[in-house]
Amino acid sequence: MGKLQSKQKRNISRYRVDGHADYSPTSQTVQQYSPAHNDAVTSLASLTSEQCVSGGNDKTVVIYNWKSGGVQQKFMSHERDITKVTCNFKSNRIFSASRDKTALMWDVDCKAGPLQEFTGHELGVTGLAVSPGGLQLCTGSRDNSMCIWDVETGICLQKSSISRNLVTHICWIPTESLVIQTSEDKMVRIWDIRELQVTHTFPMKQYIQAHCDTSPDGRYCITCSNGFGGEGCEATLWDLRQAKRKVCEYKGHRQSAAACIFLPGGTSSFPLVATSAHDCTVRIWNRDTAVCVGSLCLDGAGPLTSLVSSDGASLLCGSFHTGIHHLQLNHSNGCSLSEVARF
Fold first, then answer.
1. Could you give all domains of the chain from N- to C-terminal order, each with its CATH number?
2. Over the stretch 39-61, which tens digit does the pLDDT of each residue have?
């Protein structure tokens, strides 16, 4: 570790508007920093413009400065793999969920242990979202239940269960008392957290829904699917306004799409979304036309698990085998992606 790799992986592609791929090797060096985890990275969140929060199969939650390269804080109280981490941007509190059936709240500056523990699920906690104001936490589990918690007291305010609703991800709709939730039953649901009731379900997809994200203005939601052989590996854009209709689909991954996010830094005429998948590729898409405008293959990384971005130029991607990858998005050259560091 700490060495410079002589060149990037050769299997890099940039997709032109016509859909054809350009494959070309590059001599750009990739900085290798000390690793954040010693096992698969399962979840990422953005804490500041230069810090990320990550969780892994090594049972640890890590705060890492990805610009300077170094672990700044490491939390170890979970008894099993971390499934999700989340936080509000520039907050001093971060949250983690685990297969040990609990969620924990941590103070960024405190090494003594978790500030709060949220217990009550019967199986692993696989969905996690904190309200924009930081006062409530929403969790979902493989036990088919969703819970709303008071962050300060750790008290469960509401709990609701739906048969076969094995939760895979949760995201909060900005400025609303609503969360979106994906599930292994192939459904995408909108919940009103005030009574914890489902207010809307989107048409059932063909494959398991793995991840979701909402646009900063709360107008759109993006979800992505498990699949294989190019079937069911798409991401889907939904309109959250009155019609709540499907807008378009982003197709091109060959294996399960594991993460999908809206990217900051786009323009009103060229808004962007990003996806990562088990086929080792990260793809950038024009949100409205569903054209793939940039693609990068991280050979040897194994399944890609998570994505996060705090600005319009940098993207962090979690992987099973090679830690966290810092990718740079170059808008001056179309939307080409390049890897600049990993840790």
1. 71-201 (2.130.10.10)
2. 999 999 999 999 999 999 999 99
